[in-house]
Amino acid sequence: MNLKRQRIAVCGGGGFIGGHLVKSFLMQGINVVRAIDFKPCEQWQQRSPDVENLVLDLREKAACEKAVRGVDVVFNLASDMGGMGFIENNKALCMLSVLINTHLLLASRDAGVEQFFYSSSACVYNREKQNDPQGTALKEEDAYPALPEDGYGWEKLFSERMCRHFEQDFGMECRVARYHNVYGPWGTYDGGREKAPAAICRKVIEAKLSGSGEMEIWGDGTQTRSFMYIDDCVKGTQMIAESDLHEPINLGSSELVSIDELADIVEEIAGTRLKRRYKRDAPTGVNGRNSDNTKISEYFGWEPSVRLRDGMAKTYEWIEDQMLSGRSESYVAAAVAYSS
Questions:
Q1: Is-above-0.90 flag for pTM?
Q2: Catalytic residue among 125, 152, 229, 331
């Protein structure tokens, strides 16, 4: 499918990934009819005046019907989510996002939408395969037998199945990408929903501004992850949406680092060295998680182009600018409710 020939709706368009996706599509001349988010428009992380920007609660079926009216392709990036601290302490809220995807699928079917894109997560993978900090690379088939992240991971895996069965039963084309830890400018960096890359940037900046000389690390620093820069996520999302791929696929980087190594990178960018206090009772998730990119490489010849060090430098610069401009506290209020 060539998206330039389609009318697009981006659900979660006021959030981090959704905002970048709308911006990228518009720059390519793709017809984004509307962007939809739960937050008031003035709190969207990015907003374009060139599209219809709707504030709707997509947990409600009537809102979903309005969101998808008159479009050919729906991108569902709407979800109540955040970093590990939020996920582990708000399992019911995470599970309620299943209403968003269910009602969007029903509304899309009834409206004759041609294709539905669902943003899933690496949190769908079996936790027993993620005990090794060396980070066994997770293949798509490792989602089964099912034992995903409690709450958020179960919602994502169930929603994947819903997409599969809507395609089988109703003939609506569905595409599913499993995002692995997306980061970059315009993402949440404080307030409790931020993820590790942004959180560490903020902590280093806070330490520099306060002169404290130290920062807190959740866990013991040995837990490992791979992180994908937002530009690669947007490019990969479009690539998958325009493909003929009918099964979920990893969209992430295979550049594995420990949290301590991630902190090293940020300290190097900042030109500082801090004492680390390890909060070992903090939520940390699994011990090791990495993206196996075999399938996406075979299908598309694709691998993320932005190295972690380069992406973190851009992210650090943006967060530092926000904090030095005094936007940190107001930005928290504008953050990610019901947006990916």
A1: yes
A2: 152
